[in-house]
Model the fold of this input.
Amino acid sequence: MEALFGKKKRAPGGSLVLYTTRHGATQRYAERIAQPLDALVKETAYAKIDAAKTYDAIVLGCCVYAGKIKGLGFFADHAQELTDKRLVLFTCGLYDPQEEAVRKALDAQIREALGEMTDRIAIFHLRGSLRWQSLGLVERVMMKALLSGIRKKPEAERTKTEALLLESEGGALDFADEMDLAPIVHAARFGREAER
Ligand SMILES: Cc1cc2nc3c(=O)[nH]c(=O)nc-3n(C[C@H](O)[C@H](O)[C@H](O)COP(=O)(O)O)c2cc1C
Done:
């Protein structure tokens, strides 16, 4: 019958994982998070709120470029429609969120974009990857400018990430294997306040 009438309609519930990416790291995390949740994965730009509202949990993955978190708009624009959902947000950048200044800057940006809604969201910061080979011209220029700024700093004042960025110039950096995605999956399943 399914073959005749097309796919069976999905029952409401479950999880939806959305992502915004330029070079794929955020998408790869989204796919890894979606797997144990048996969730649908979709690029945020193509997500529709009416369909998203039929899920119990929404995970929003956002890449970070030039200090800006991309793709927060989906939550910001639909705050009123998502009040009864389990909401999870993860950022994907290269800087180390264990450093307080990095984490604070990301958190402040999220709060500025989402306001009170922030308190209803489980928030995580992941580290992505960088492949010089895949960078466009503008991105290369930006990275070169960043590196030249780092080079001007005395070695002792450079953060670990800055030293890594210098070392890997022209090559690649990837933190995918170091990231624990279990807490994100857990938050999608049980909500922000659930004990682990
Ligand atoms: C031009 C450029 C600017 C970047 N700016 C930042 C930044 O401000 N903060 C950060 O943590 N990572 C920054 N990154 C690293 C990206 O966030 C990282 O490559 C991440 O994996 C991107 O996600 P995506 O692969 O899903 O696009 C930058 C990378 C490039 C190429």
About this structure: Residues 1 and 8 are 9 Å apart (CA to CA).
